[in-house]
Design a protein that fits this description.
- The chain contains 2 helices and 20 strands.
- By secondary structure, the chain is mostly beta strands.
- The protein has a 6-stranded antiparallel beta sheet with strand order 1-4-3-6-8-10. It has a 5-stranded mixed beta sheet with strand order 15-11-18-19-20, with no helix packed on it. The chain has a 4-stranded antiparallel beta sheet with strand order 14-12-16-17, with no helix packed on it.
- The longest helix is centred in the N-terminal third of the chain and has 7 residues, at 4-10.
Length: 311
């Protein structure tokens, strides 16, 4: 018989919920196969087992500091268990010391500006029957949404400024949430990184491309990242997230904001954009239909079939 909490301090593998003592013979191993999103780099992996019923108390916890993607052996007591995996959460193992139940984990959040786009925080969960099931599978999905500008061009044919370039192109996101729940991958509704204003330069929601564009299509390879904003229609208090192209024509600055409704975490939104005339003077006012043409492809963060939406 060993105290679950103090066992975590002397055995770096597992942390069991406080005030529960269990004979080691009652512990059962479950082999867990983890599928992480493609083009991400896993570092740490936190594994939490919860009782599948009642108060859904924490049963056991494990952190793997340098996870290489291989299947892992998780351990819990006998019975139905909810298994949660969280990758790349930057805090140390003691960041979870206040988590005593599945409900408590549901309140845990991540900050946007602490994210790393190459190794984003990812979460996933499944159910298993410890003591009977020998293995289970968990798919990890990023909290972040990926916004990719696949192609850009500027065609001012028939305008008084035909032949001009859109110079000093910058690309950024507006109306971005700055906090997201780790388990549900839902943003905190009232928590904003840049509510109706352009801030957070030099971050994952902003890119100064340094390019000028004309009728020749360019492929800038720009990817920005933000938390979900799954609304389909905006209100004054809850605006849509916008992808904004900024540039100058004849020395004057113009903006081309594009709304992204129903923005989900763990997905990639790829845009092919053609600028056709002078834009708005405000980055939070959607561009006139005649100012920009684009198509948008929505696909999982990992490779998959595209869903093409034309506008």
């Amino acid at each position: 018989m060993r105290s679950a909490w103090w066992l975590s301090l002397i055995m770096p593998a597992f942390l069991f919920s406080a005030c529960i003592e269990a004979p080691l013979k009652d512990m059962h191993k479950v082999q867990i196969y983890i599928r992480e999103a493609e083009k991400t780099t896993p570092h740490t992996l936190d594994l939490l087992f919860f009782e599948d019923g009642g108060l859904m108390k924490l049963d056991s916890y494990e952190r793997i500091e340098k996870w290489d993607g291989a299947p892992i052996d998780g351990t819990s007591r006998t019975g139905g268990r909810k298994v949660v995996a969280i990758a790349n959460y930057g805090e140390d193992r003691f960041a979870w010391s206040d988590i005593l139940s599945y409900e408590g984990l549901g309140e845990k959040t991540m900050e946007l500006m602490e994210e790393n786009s190459s190794s984003p925080v990812m979460s996933g969960e499944t159910e298993t029957l410890a003591g009977r099931d020998k293995g289970c599978e968990i798919g990890l999905h990023p909290l972040l949404s990926k916004i990719r500008v696949n192609s850009l061009c500027a065609d001012f044919h028939g305008r008084p400024y035909e032949g001009e370039k859109l110079k000093n192109v910058k690309v950024f996101l507006m109306n971005v949430h700055d906090r997201c729940k780790i388990l549900s991958r839902k943003s905190e509704p009232s928590s904003w990184a840049n509510y109706r204003e352009r801030i957070y330069e030099d971050s994952i929601i902003y890119c100064d491309s340094g390019i000028s564009i004309s009728t020749a299509v360019v492929f800038p390879g720009i990817s920005l990242y933000c938390y979900p904003n799954d609304i389909s229609e905006e209100t004054p208090e809850t605006p849509l997230t916008r992808l904004v192209i900024e540039g100058t024509i004849g020395g004057n600055t113009y903006f081309y904001p594009i709304n992204i409704p129903c923005l989900e975490g763990g997905k990639e939104y790829a845009f092919n954009i053609t600028i056709t005339k002078k834009g708005t003077s405000d980055p939070d006012t959607p561009a006139d239909v005649g100012a920009v043409r684009f198509n948008q492809s929505v696909l999982p963060w990992k490779d998959g079939d595209e869903v093409l939406e034309r506008f």
